Amino acid sequence: MRFSGIKMPGLLKGGLFCWVVVLFVVVFSMFLADFLLEEPAVPERGMSSIPFDHAIHGDSIGLDCSACHTGARASANAYMPSMADCMDCHRLPMNDKLAEEEMQVDLSEKPWSHKRHLPDHVVFHHGVHAAAGVACADCHGTGFRQNRYGGEKFDMQSCIRCHRGETFKERGFKPAATYCAACHR
Amino acid sequence: MGMDRREFIKSCSLVAVMGLLYGCRKLPLDEVARLGDGPTLKQFEDEVKLAVSQAKKQLDLVKVSRPGPLSIPGASPLNRFGMAIDLDLCDGCGECILACNKENNVPLVPEDDAARGRFMHWVDMRSGAPFMCAHCGKAPCERVCPTGAANHTPDGLSAMVYKRCAGSRFCGANCPVQARKFNFNDAQKLGLARKFNKEVPLRDKGVMEKCSLCLHRLQNDRLKFKTQLSVAVAAAGNVSVKNAAENATEWRGRGVTTACSDACKRRAIIFGNWLDEKSPLVQLTKDRVLYAPREIADLDPSVVFMRGRR
Ligand code: SF4
Ligand code: SF4
């Protein structure tokens, strides 16, 4: 690149404009790169080949979340259902089609893969919250009924508001532990 | 113009490519850095052997009374966890150090640090016996933490919130017995860290760490207990569920152990709850004389030594 021949007036007129454009491109491409390549704040939901419908399973049959998310009421992790969990029901002759045919899918052993949202240094136990009377939808919202996922906003603000006893007063929740090491390690 | 159109477009695209590369800096480079599963177990074992052979710090023990309830605000009247190390049983083998390193993903240190005896181990050998943070009831380290990352739990643990730690190292300077270790190195980048235990997070560069009294084990047990208790109360008639909660309505941390105490073949490290009569800690220290390092003897330590019988 030949910059040596630039005279002052030239730099001020055309040259300065060039540099502004170059600077803009630099900044813009960095933003673009971060936007394109940065990990999304909410990890993608690991989708499977199954066109699963929460509304059919939850609202219309009235299944509890823990029927499929087997840990939701008693363990630390809620868990995604395995094929065996699906087949517990779908093996039954619900109609005259075979289960696989009805579900129109090729079931693998673990049809859903799920990446944990929770950072390593945070402890969250689903069971203890369920046992204390917190409903799944209190944190997870109702988006999943419309088969919208990943929109929940989990942050420490919402944890701490409830632990301090500021939210859900009408349900008589008692304030819970707020010392750091109750939830952090 | 000093630049013609072609030059201008060329430099723009060059800059754009550089920008894109800059944007990817974290992704592929970090992936490469994280290839492989880190150091081998042998390396950890060798480092512990080296540390044990180099250890020359001595403890100046003085008699202390049995730890009682904490005096900090909000302290639990039921639980105060701690340990007692039996100097009559310990033979200084160092198995506890290795067990702690594996339990808590304690990283290796670069060779020149190791040569100078600067390990990250949460347990040191001092006077031929394991020595770790004493979880002082009046912890001087916590009082000087500018961010509140070093703080006390109601049940007597001196806890570290790694993500709050800004690396001032005031706590390390104010610990009279140098129980704290600072991450001067980025162990993950240098390939010196290995995640043996997924329950414990890896620490970043610039963060202070020390014995946590196996905090994660206590946390897991407490959450499990509280879940089972609520289930038992809900199904009050169900005898088998009631038994699951052992008929206790308050969590006392019964049955929890620490990795170092599990690893000790001679049962020289006793973990338990100083305020629980049923705890092995209370029972096994009953007729013993308790000691603590002179520097922290009046800071109400929760981890003590015992020697001789009364
Ligand atoms: S031994 Fe040191 S690090 Fe541990 S609580 Fe006491 S002062 Fe703090
Ligand atoms: S109690 Fe846990 S963290 Fe502390 S020295 Fe023992 S194994 Fe390590």
Question: How would you describe this protein?
Answer:
The complex is a heterodimer of chains A (185) and B (310). With 185 residues, chain A is mostly helical. Chain A is extended. In chain A, 39% of the residues lie in helices and 0% in strands. The N and C termini of chain A lie far apart (55 Å). Chain A contains 8 helices and no strands. The mean pLDDT of chain A is 78. Chain A has helices at 8-37, 54-60, 65-68, 83-90, 99-103, 126-131, 136-140, 156-163. Chain A has a domain at 54-154. Chain B has a 5-stranded mixed beta sheet with strand order 1-10-11-2-9. Chain B has a two-stranded antiparallel sheet with strand order 3-4. A two-stranded antiparallel sheet of chain B has the order 5-6. Chain B is globular. Chain B has 2 domains: 32-214 and 257-309, Alpha-Beta Plaits; 215-256. Helices cover 32% and strands 14% of the residues of chain B. The model of chain B is unreliable at 241-245 (pLDDT under 50). In chain B, β5 and β6 form a beta hairpin. Chain B is built from 11 helices and 11 strands. Chain B has helices spanning 5-23, 27-33, 41-54, 95-103, 111-115, 140-143, 170-174, 215-234, 239-244, 259-263, 280-284, and strands at residues 61-63, 81-86, 124-126, 129-131, 150-152, 158-160, 181-182, 208-209, 269-273, 288-293, 303-309. Chain B has 310 residues and is an alpha+beta fold. Classes of the chains: A mainly alpha (185), B alpha+beta (310). Chain A binds chain B through residues 1-3, 5-6, 10-11, 14-15, 18, 21-22, 25-26, 28-30, 32-34, 36-38, 74, 76, 119-121, 123, 125, 127-128, 130-132, 179-182, 184-185, and chain B through 1-3, 7-8, 10-12, 15-16, 18-20, 22-24, 27, 74, 148, 151, 153-154, 157, 159, 161-164, 198-202, 212, 215-216, 219-220, 223-224, 226-227, 229-231, 234. The complex binds iron/sulfur cluster (SF4) (2 copies).
